[in-house]
Specification:
Pfam families: BcsB (PF03170). By secondary structure, the protein is an alpha+beta fold. Helix content is 21%, strand content 31%. The protein is built from 12 helices and 41 strands. Helix 3 crosses helix 7.
Amino acid sequence: MTTRSTLGSLAATRLRALPALAAGLIACLPHASAMAAAAAPNAASATPVKVTSAVPGATRTHTYTLKQLGALFPLQLRGIDGVYGVPFSVRADEVVTGATLRLAYAYSPALLPDLSHINVLVNGEVSSSIPVPREQGGVNLTRDIAIPPRLITEFNRLNLQLIGHYTMECEDPAHSSLWANISNNSVLELTVTRIALENDLALLPQPFFDRRDIRPLNLPFVFASAPGGAALEAAGVLSSWFGALASYRGATFPVTQNAIPDHGNAVILATANERVAGVTWPQVQGPTVAVATNPNDPYGKLLLVLGRDAAELKTAATALAVGAPTLSGQAATITGIEQQKPRKPYDAPNWLRADRAVKFGELADAAALNVSGYSPDLIRVNFRMPPDLFAWREKGIPVDLRYRYTPRAEPDKSTLNININQRFLRSEPLLAIRHDATSRVDRLLDKVMPDGTVPARAKFQIPLFMLPAQTQMQFHYYYDYIKQGECKDVVLDNVRGTIEPDSTIDISHFSHFIAMPDLAAFSNSGFPFTRMADLSDTAVVLPDSPTPADYSTYLTVLGRLGDATGYPATGVTVAAARQAETLGGKDLLVISSGGRQPLLQQWAQYMPVSLDGNAKRFSLSDKVYQLFSWRDSDSRTNAKPTRQTLAFNSASSDAIIAGFESPLSGGRSVVVISANQPAGLHEAMRAMLDPDLVKSIQGSAVVIREKQVDSLAADQTYFVGSLNPLLHVQWYLANHPLLLALLGIVAALLLAVVLYLSLRARARRRLAL
């Protein structure tokens, strides 16, 4: 592969280009002065991106609520100087020309108007100060606040600050009357002008994915003709790569044949003898990756993945997914790629390592583990776990927490509160250190803590039921505010807290063993397919005559699996239904729409639900009556045996997701995503990408009807994984108490027989004497 251009040269190129961009905007657009001002700060603080020129008429508007920007709850501003904020960013191919904050807020009627106000700050600079007249206190208000574009760069922070006072005399800085409430439904509106980036592989994954963009990724894939298995495997490598990049945003991949989109970006996969209407590409002399301008949109780009045959096409896709940071130029021909080392089970980059303890410094940036002030933000540590950890008779996941904090002057109620996904786990007291201490221990502590902070350590276990596939540990330093008396209360910004990066969490001693089918493990973590990060144990079975909806569903699911693992699916196998018999030994993902999948009929006896055209059959268990969901490692808790079966005909566009043991190989799994109409597959993908709906995908069978997801059955029939022999015997007997009782009786009888024979032999010896 060719090497990537250095960051310094890229930065210089963009800095040279942005003044030309500003001049072009002044000449071409009506609001010239405002847009020229918008270009200036971006030139000063932009990241290295090559830019050509702006084209008139490329203005559009983005709107984000504060909730979409990360404020899950209304912003509560408290005290004499309360601050709360959210981050926002601007794509590399856009320049902000106007910004408005539509603020919904209320404030305390006790605030003094002459001394109090609410500041709107962007990147630390005051954009506007909002007065707080007494007559509007306690009333829900709205206000449009214009934000100067010159304050906005690529990565930004919007802060709301309350400067509050309730008396002209001595006041309590934490008085209950000092408050303002900012609705998280307040809207930030950004007017942007698009700019055309240079056709350069060094910008990848931009503009196809831009980490500054918090919206879901929608990236069309274009095939020149009906793709074969190898071409689809190449596309799956790319969709899983983009899915891993998109992460929490989610990613969908519409598919077309021989037709590029009218606007925006797209990925084209083709061999040398194929052509896509309206698109030209360089001569293909091997696996080739290139970037071209969308002929229908001067701002859109086409990512060309080419090869002389399907094998080279997959080589190009793999090289792009694993080596994008090394590419440069408008086109690159891959001359060599070393054979990758085989992946090991459970080694996905996004998962906690299963072979050793993992340090918090590996999970979060060191700067994010530090906070300051009496009302600090949460310290957040995010991680994913394999969903098949077996914690039977275990206390939980061990955590060795090391932290430091500014000691309290006197004993009080200050604590470090520890939450898991906003659920309280435990708290640790923040102790006081007396500076006038006379004991030897106190004097020794003063010597070993020259920075004024107290090191502390806590070891505890997190119950496995509190740890879903995606977990966030939250640490909150709560400092008790001790009132000193009238005119003595002063808030000093002299408190600090940190979670040490060498704190650890350890899952290495847990076995991997899970009752299946378990659609919750599939929808949240992609299990069992993601057991191998590259999906080398996975085969996707499409109908013999697939539709674009089938292709799109396949790519979207692989994007979801890439998000779970953080690694492209370089080992996935794609086959048609007629090839299914050759896929023994693999976990199967079966996709179907419109009754074109013959495996649904062949395997109907194994499936808890099935769709065959308009004919539908559902196996039902007590799962449909369950009011609350409970996740437990004990299979007896989760199992809901099938009670009855319902069959009917209907022309609705329902979709089903079902899991069962593979008829081709014992211990292997099959997950079916099926709909009698293509629209049903779209609804299934929407449910998997929706954070609220995905929680309802559980058990062994799920039906999706528009925005409603119902789990119908949780009949677990087989197990995946392994236990050590002693633990397996203990677990098996715990699940079969009658067998345990029978073995106890047999053991007692054997013991009685042994004792009887021993005593008889002893009696004979005594009589012989």
